[in-house]
Design brief:
Order of helices and strands: EHEHHEEHEEHHEEEH
Strand content: 5-15%
Distance between the termini: 12 Å
Radius of gyration: 16 Å
Number of helices: 7
Oligomer: single chain
Number of strands: 9
Length: 226
């Protein structure tokens, strides 16, 4: 199993002067779920190199067994510090793609032509595509085989409006993930705020929030092992 993982390169939280990026648990939990299952994971980002970590995801109350494992794992830290450039990868070389969230993707990956084309190539090839938390935002401009929005008529999850309100960023983000998925025709559903909730519709896997990260990766593995 060759799996591509795509992280954001965006580090500015709108014009607040605060930092953002990817969410640590949303990288660590899927990375270990996939590699422990024997997958080869290549990590990419638009700019390559070290992607920006959302500092809030490094706070003590945001830690999990997977993030603690990462902090003691020099080999995986090196992988993360040396992501390949997104424009250098091809869907032809991978069996699936996984997008971790954090707020960063709403600014760069949602509008990134390489990311959009890459996801559409995975979809055309009937290969699994997964995204968790804010990362379903990367589907904003992605089309399915029929030329309609990828999520149209599909069961999808993603960071909820109430979760965004709870972190007080509703008026800062460029768009709300829940609203966008609904506007694009997605059959949006959610579980309790901050609880694990993952949906699989065909080859598309979406998770609601950081707690959904490992379950989303396990759902992706389930599709690959069919």
């Amino acid at each position: 199993m060759n799996i591509l993982m795509v992280l954001t390169s965006h580090d500015q939280l709108g014009d607040t002067g605060q930092k953002t990026g990817f969410w640590l648990e949303e990288f660590a939990a899927p990375y270990y779920a996939l590699t422990d299952a024997g997958a080869r994971v290549v990590v990419a980002s638009p700019k390559g190199g070290q992607p920006p970590l959302d500092p809030k995801s490094d706070a003590p109350d945001a830690q999990s067994d997977d993030t603690r494992r990462f902090k003691a794992d020099a080999a995986t830290q090196k992988v993360l510090a040396n992501t390949v450039r997104l424009d250098s990868v091809s869907a032809d070389d991978f069996d699936a793609v996984f997008y971790p969230g954090g707020h960063g993707p709403l600014w760069d990956l949602a509008e990134d032509g390489h990311s959009i084309s890459l996801i559409e190539a995975f979809v055309r090839a009937d290969k699994p595509v997964a995204a968790v938390c804010h990362a379903p935002g990367v589907f904003k401009s992605v089309k399915g085989k029929d030329g309609e929005p990828l999520v149209k008529g599909r069961k999808v999850a993603g960071f909820t409006n109430t979760e965004e309100a709870a972190v007080e960023l509703t008026d800062i983000v460029p768009f709300l993930v829940e609203d966008m998925l609904k506007a694009n025709g997605g059959d949006y559903a959610k579980g309790p705020d901050w609880g694990s909730f993952v949906l699989t519709d065909g080859q598309l896997v979406t998770g609601q929030n950081p707690a959904s990260s490992r379950a989303a990766a396990e759902a992706l593995l389930g599709l690959l092992k069919r």
